Amino acid sequence: MIGDIDSKMRSKGIDGIVVFGDTTLADPDLSYVAGGVLPRGGTYFKKLGRPPLLVVSNLDYGSARRAGKVTRIQTLTQWGYEKLLKRFEDRSDAFPHLISQILRAEGVRGKVVLFGRNDVAKGLRLAERLGRLGVKVVGQQSPTVLEAARDRKDGKELEELRKVGAKTARVVNEVGRRRATVGLIKFMIASKLARENLIAPEGTIFAVGPSGADPHNAGVDAAEIKKGRLIVFDIFPQAQSGYWSDLTRSFVVGRADARARKLFETVRDAQVSSVDYLRAGITGEAAMELSCDIIERAGYRTVREIFQGKTKSLSTGFIHSLGHGVGLTIGESPYLSLSSRDSLRSGEVVTVEPGIYIPGYGGVRIEDTVAVRTRGVENLTKVEKELELN
Amino acid sequence: MIGDIDSKMRSKGIDGIVVFGDTTLADPDLSYVAGGVLPRGGTYFKKLGRPPLLVVSNLDYGSARRAGKVTRIQTLTQWGYEKLLKRFEDRSDAFPHLISQILRAEGVRGKVVLFGRNDVAKGLRLAERLGRLGVKVVGQQSPTVLEAARDRKDGKELEELRKVGAKTARVVNEVGRRRATVGLIKFMIASKLARENLIAPEGTIFAVGPSGADPHNAGVDAAEIKKGRLIVFDIFPQAQSGYWSDLTRSFVVGRADARARKLFETVRDAQVSSVDYLRAGITGEAAMELSCDIIERAGYRTVREIFQGKTKSLSTGFIHSLGHGVGLTIGESPYLSLSSRDSLRSGEVVTVEPGIYIPGYGGVRIEDTVAVRTRGVENLTKVEKELELN
Q: Which of B24, B33, B120 to mutate to test the interface with A (most CBs of A within 10 A)?
């Protein structure tokens, strides 16, 4: 939560943080600290124990006010940025001077961490220039101060996540029962997402038969939805607030044969058992182990074999991890996997998405997005898990 | 163009580049070198003078093949990444070892630049760890090797940009003539974008009357579109290929008064004159000066006053720059502005978007996306510039 930033900074010995970027689009840290959309980005300064400062272009002053999370907002012009641009040949020389000036004015003297999704090559150059100007820039490993703050969602954030979950469910419930080509279904999905004011910048997966055996195959537009074929429908839209939802259902139109039924029931058992098992204190690794247990007991292979050194690679069975955090990104900590060191905390929001894949035949994956509570979870995905649609 | 990478590396004394990230979403460098979407990202290695290598998770091997730009594709498992994850406590320790191993195997011995939109804090830590492992990581200022390669678009890229331009124009032509509230218009726009398979991850600006005087005010959903009020309609969608289009029109429904007409005609004159003026060899600064000349001659103020030191800030008149590059991002070099050092080259694609803003009254901005040619430009935006819609 945003109020955690000071304590996280203190525990890591950090005196100041700077979050910068040319856009809040796909920059979860910058949109988190600003509280909304800055069309041309901005730079956020936080001295330990003091209220933050947001510096934006003249153009984005109004956007920064509307985003509303930071009360101290100033413009680049107030900091003489145009003069710096005239003094130096290049923006990449003027910008470090601006940053060091503002850090000095804010009283930052100790270690500084730079945030924001930016070109690593340019970030390194900025850090080097800041070093020459006397700023003590240090790197950070995951979870960074901001990732740690973002992990647990506050009431307003959970409300956003609930909303995008409900809208996504509405789209899925309406689309699930139609028959057509994949291309037509995808067009319907896109229209319904638009009506809900959601976007799907990474697309939607609607994979029929063998293409469903590749977890990231988005499906072939020209493919027809034949009766009895397994379909993997994975939808991951984002609301204008920046928050995401992640939902997968697998089903057949018409009657399923015994092979499809066993796949489906095994995955549903693993998924429902894992959701039931989750609560604050459970480790991401233990949740994954539970799904592996259930899937192996049914006779399918899992990635545990790779971790046990029994095989080098695996293309059949449960070949990915159980889940990941969801918030201002569609993939963040905590992770539910065999290599995860995360222990779940109340307020974290994660996916639970076991799957089994049979090359040449098809796949089944079932996924909900859930909010972790002290006792159990709040399931943000309210869509039935049925094998046969008629 | 992608073939320029070797010569740019050579001229900057770089022996290897690494492009990495957890997603190609909003990562123009990673999607550029991969040639398409990698749902969970990947790592691209390029030794000077040798064909590149793309390393992805087992899951994304199919996606990498479909993206199709790199022929040498390998998986993390082939490089023993699971073992590295077991050997080290943390992913952020295993990853530097993986990178240094592959760089060694590819024969990279000299300077290495890291690319990809990633948390700066984590990028700095990766660079530091790589340094300990003997990799010579250096920063870069703009334009980086990849930005320089991306500037000029090849035939396939121009074809994508033409397509997204044509689709965007179709949406605008259909929406422009309706009357409703802003919210209803925006819903219609979103539906039509969905039909064209376009997304607008940064939203759409449809600002009526005084809200149009703030260039980044997206418009108020509840506002009614009253006759005679100036409307700024700025739409910037992205195609699934990753390429963008940027288009602004300003108009009134019904009859315009003399004040609106003078604003509109001045901006249109500046815009059309600047488009006509552009060709390879023209500087971004000269194009901006031409628009300022025309707008000042009509009696409006421009940002030139700030650059001349006559004022510290400006909220009326032509208060932003003339344009920017468009490609896999919606804002990149070259820039058409008073501080630009860019000289236009054939194959670059830029916006031309002068605007005049009158606080409390409204604004006019007109914008096309154009491809720079040796003689003139190819205008990718085929939408009329009319003041009055009836």
A: B120
| Contacts B23 to A, Cβ<8 Å | 202, 331
Q: Which of A316-320, B27-31, B329-333 tops mean pLDDT?
A: A316-320
pTM score of the predicted model? 0.77
Q: Cα separation of B21 and B28, whole Å?
A: 11
pLDDT single digits (tens) B88-108: 877 778 999 999 999 999 999
Domains of chain A (ranges; CATH) run: 2-149 (3.40.350.10), 152-389 (3.90.230.10)
Rounded to whole angstroms, what are the CA distances from A200 to A234, A348, A351, B203, B226?
11, 22, 17, 13, 33
CA B322 to chain A, closest CA, distance in angstroms equals 14
Higher pLDDT, A370 or A331: A370
CB atoms within 10 A of CB A299: 9
Q: Are A216 and B138 a contacting pair at CB < 8 A?
A: no
Q: Chain A: nearest CA to B26, how far in angstroms?
A: 6
Q: Which residues of A touch B9 (CB under 8 A)?
A: none
Q: What is the reported pLDDT for A312?
A: 84
Report whether A70 contacts A44 (CB < 8 A): yes
HSE at residue B122, side-chain half, CA atoms within 13 A, is 26
| Nearest residue on chain B to A78, alpha-carbon basis | B312
The token pair at A31 is 């949109």
Q: Is the pLDDT of residue A173 over 70?
A: yes
Task: Map residue B163 onto helix, strand or coil.
Answer: helix
Query: 3-state DSSP call for residue A211?
Result: helix
Q: Nearest chain B Cα to A307, which residue?
A: B82
Q: Best-predicted range by mean pLDDT among A215-219, B78-82, B160-164?
A: B78-82
Nearest to B194 among A127, A190, A339 (CB): A190
Residue A108, pLDDT > 80, answer yes
Of B25, B86, B320, which has the smallest distance from its Cβ to A202's Cβ?
A: B25
Contacts A–B by Cβ distance under 8 A: 216
Lowest-pLDDT range, A19-23, A196-200, B47-51? A196-200
Q: Do B127 and A124 touch (CB under 8 A)?
A: yes
Distance CA B17, CA B39 (A): 22
Residues of chain B neighbouring A26 (CB-CB closer than 8 A): 25-27, 117, 201
How many angstroms separate the CA atoms of B206 and B183, rounded? 9
Distance CA B207, CA B220 (A): 7
In three-state secondary structure terms, A140 is coil
Instruction: Point out the least confidently predicted range of A368-382, B189-203, B343-357.
Output: B189-203
Q: Is the pLDDT of residue A324 over 80?
A: yes
Three-state SS string over B88-131 comes to CCCHHHHHHHHHHHHHHHCCCCCEEEEECEEEHHHHHHHHHHHH
Q: How far is CA B149 from CA A386, B3, B327, B347, B348, in A?
A: 50, 8, 12, 11, 11
